[in-house]
Amino acid sequence: MTPRGWTRANLRHVLAMLRYGANPAATVYDSIGPDFFLALAPGWLNLGLWEGDGGDPSEAPVAVRRLVERIAAALPGGGDVLDVGNGLAAQDLVIAATVRPRSLTAVNITWSQLEAGRDRLREAGARGVCADACDLPFADVSFDGVISVEAAFHFPSRERFFREAFRVLRPGGVLAMSDLPTVRLPQGPREALAAVAMLRGWGLRPAAAASPGTIVATAAGAGFVDIRSELVGDRVVAPALRFVRDRLDAGRDGGPRTLGLAARAMLSQADVLWERGLLDYLLLEARKPERKS
Ligand SMILES: C[S@@+](CC[C@H](N)C(=O)[O-])C[C@H]1O[C@@H](n2cnc3c(N)ncnc32)[C@H](O)[C@@H]1O
Description:
Elements: H1 8-16, H2 24-32, H3 60-72, E1 80-84, H4 90-99, E2 103-108, H5 111-116, H6 118-124, E3 126-130, E4 143-148, H7 158-168, E5 169-179, H8 188-201, H9 212-221, E6 225-231, H10 233-249, H11 257-275, E7 282-287
Parallel strand pairs: 1-2, 1-4, 2-3, 4-5
Antiparallel strand pairs: 5-7, 6-7
Helix pairs in contact: 1-2, 3-4, 4-6, 7-9, 8-11, 10-11
The structure holds S-adenosylmethionine (SAM).
The site of S-adenosylmethionine has 24 residues, from helix 2 and strand 2.
């Protein structure tokens, strides 16, 4: 028996918060399922790149696409592109339309998401591969572009992901991504509680908490050059939190009451991290150097 509106995967998620297994991200995203009641738009799991403060609900489906268009715009057109952590594959349609790749490969550690996104993958002309971002099952120098939208904080190690992205890219290839950096560590019990709630709720390892500078340095350490980074939390985190709060307040989330209460509790922890300046949103572009002649 599960509480009304809860799935078995939800309960597994709650139990896993006490002790996550080898693949915490898949436990979390199996639990969230293909129809996450707090998603900004159906099929999307990113926070969006917003115009405005999040108070206009019609902006949400535009913002989630705009974020992917913005990140994908750095990729070379017409090449072989790898999308790492592709969610429910809505973004693969946008990547395909933005860069018209010769081939598009989408990697996800959550098998149920690849299944749920199968039609979108087909429509985008993409192939889905269930694999870990830190152990990519592809030959060296086989892609012109690697994109990863809002997923790297889940990876077992950013350092290994950057090394893998560098390895599979051809010389001159581009990495374009977004990430959730931790600007400073928590101070005092209120901030510590918020940080622990976020880490446990989203199945994150303590190493997920890395500063923007550390993330950029890790990319450089893997060999990337021409690294450009920008913090855009004002246009991403702030409006997304406002949008979700408004939706919960208006009872428009459509989810079961107990899940709504759990979501509200998590939202207030996220508010603490954002409002006190612990959290931001990072856009990063980098290039693998050309071969020396
Ligand atoms: C916050 S969601 C973002 C999904 C999608 N990029 C979007 O923006 O809608 C994080 C995604 O990363 C995937 N993921 C987490 N850890 C991963 C790993 N180690 N390797 C590959 N994918 C991973 C999850 O399954 C999920 O699809």
